[in-house]
Design brief:
With about 190 residues, the protein is mostly helical. It is built from seven helices and no strands. This is TRAP transporter small permease protein.
Length: about 190
């Protein structure tokens, strides 16, 4: 039952990350059009600048849970990589339970009030700009998604320790920095 829940959480965060990746394209297009308008017609607006900021923020915040799912967050592989896989999983569990979940829960809790104040006040940061509350709402949403993904990662690690799941279900394809460097070099090698 818990592994089904974990798979559902993983799928949800993959879908959100895929959808929000289109926001990056939109931000690039808006940035290009805004630059052209400024260069050609000496005309721009704060709203155009702020929508870029909102879109970049959405990409960063809403894709962070999928980054955790893909095991692509910042790690200290140089040290942890020397331990056995089982020890690495225990370190992951410790990190999720002691650091990730409590910190994300605190940020989620305090950002709710921040987003509520922004929504109720109708705050606009710059003349001619956009309301700030949509960007403010991204913070609690993103950290709630991180909490839920953290629970999914804990489920997978516990299942691995109990022999019910293979490590490939939660480990990167290229597990070592040396493998990643070799893949980058191979991709950039002249043909």
């Amino acid at each position: 039952m818990f592994l089904s829940l974990s798979r559902g959480i993983d799928k949800f965060n993959e879908v959100i990350a895929t959808a929000v990746s289109w926001a990056l394209l939109a931000a690039v297009i808006i940035s290009t059009v805004n630059s052209l308008m400024l260069y050609l017609f000496k005309s721009s607006s704060n709203a155009w600048l702020e929508i870029q900021w909102y879109l970049y923020g959405a990409v960063f915040l809403l894709a962070s849970a999928n980054t955790l799912k893909r095991d692509e967050h910042v790690r200290i592989d140089v040290i942890v990589g020397r331990f056995s896989l089982r020890t690495q999983v225990w370190i992951d569990l410790f990190g999720y339970l002691v650091f990730l979940l409590p910190v994300c829960a605190l940020i989620f809790w305090f950002s709710l009030a921040y987003a509520e104040v922004g929504y109720l006040s109708g705050e606009i940061r710059n003349v001619g700009g956009l309301p700030a509350w949509p960007a403010m709402m991204l913070v609690p949403i993103a950290f709630l998604m991180l909490i839920v993904q953290g629970v999914s990662e804990i489920i997978k690690r516990v299942a691995f320790l109990n022999g019910r799941l293979e490590a490939g279900a939660f480990r990167k394809v290229a597990p070592t920095p040396a493998d990643e460097i070799a893949a980058i070099k191979a991709a950039n090698a002249p043909e």
